[in-house]
């Protein structure tokens, strides 16, 4: 475990080192290249803004109205029959839609049930094992001006579902 | 589909608020979240400028090409539509590596560069097969160390904050395998 943590703190500085050493060896104008590439970043951030804003606002309307909670309330009894712990259901539904909301729910669950409880471990596994599908699709497609995502959303959400089921099964199996 | 989902989320929210007395909350959230989105986008500038600058040096110094030749067979199997030696491959690999080590902030700029290169292959506003495969892998996120999650567990006094790393890797592996399989399946369906 300690190795993995060590690697993740070393990898970026070492990667930068390799790039710069190779640039110097090849006598490239490193600083000028950096500035030239960096300029693109500003443009990219502004291209992204409307895509991100539109999506975040729509999600916040859905959440703040209470509709998402009501939906979870309706669907919970069915999921409980399949062995899904009811406490985890709001997290499972928020995870693919909103990264900040999911992180908030996850830390709330950790605080309420304790990090070393079954729910605490399950929440952490769920949070750590997938990414925010809607955010990723919005940002990546938005930045390069793709209007038709085709089957990308279907694949992303179904893979999330598989990840959730896997997280519940694995945590039951390892810690249950 | 995105257009529908997007409109649907807002419509459902507003209609629900009409009948449940939460219009005040919706009104407040509307402007707060718009503000939050701007802060988020502006916050991305620092990371984007730094990494795109670094990656520009890496590209000219040939670091990306070296990375690409190292993983050639694997990448070619995942992305059959990207020609061998195309610059997109170097960016895709940098994005995967950054994600693997939980470096989300470094992963995004590299991923965006990869998307740009893939768009150059097929200049159209419709997502290409390679783009969808790439994003399917990104949304299922193969991460070795979920840094944020471990930090939260530490904050609430876990005896062993990192004990969920194993279960997360296993779950992530399953969702990634599903993502690759589903991506292949839908690609074949869409081809008819």
Describe what you observe in this structure.
The complex is a heterodimer of chains A (176) and B (192). Chain A has helices at 2-25, 30-64, 67-81, 89-94, 99-113, 118-129, 133-143, 152-175. Chain A is mostly helical and 176 residues long. In chain A, helix 2 crosses helix 7, helix 5 (99-113) packs antiparallel against helix 6 (118-129) and helix 6 packs antiparallel against helix 8. The longest helix of chain A is centred in the first third of the chain and has 35 residues, at 30-64. Chain A starts with a helix and ends with a helix. The mean pLDDT of chain A is 89. Chain B has 192 residues and is an all-alpha fold. Helices cover 80% and strands 0% of the residues of chain B. In chain B, helix 3 packs across helix 5 and helix 5 (87-100) packs antiparallel against helix 6 (104-121). Classes of the chains: A mainly alpha (176), B mainly alpha (192). Chains A and B meet through helix 1, helix 2, helix 5, helix 6 and helix 7 of A and helix 1, helix 2, helix 6, helix 7 and helix 8 of B.
Please count the helical segments of chain B: 9
The succession of helices and strands of chain B, N to C, reads: HHHHHHHHH
- N-to-C order of helices and strands of chain A: HHHHHHHH
Helix content of chain A: over 70%
The shape of chain B, in one word, is: globular
Q: Class by helix and strand content of chain A?
A: mainly alpha
Number of extended strands of chain B: 0
Task: Note poorly predicted spans of chain A.
Answer: none
Distance between the termini of chain B: 20 Å
Largest interface in this structure: A-B, 100 and 109 residues
Radius of gyration of chain B: 20 Å
Quaternary structure type: heterodimer
Task: Note poorly predicted spans of chain B.
Answer: none
How many DSSP E strands of chain A?
A: 0
The major sheet of chain B is characterized as: none
Report the mean per-residue pLDDT of chain A as an integer: 89
Helix count from the secondary structure assignment of chain A: 8
What portion of residues of chain B belong to β-strands? under 5%
Strand content of chain A: under 5%
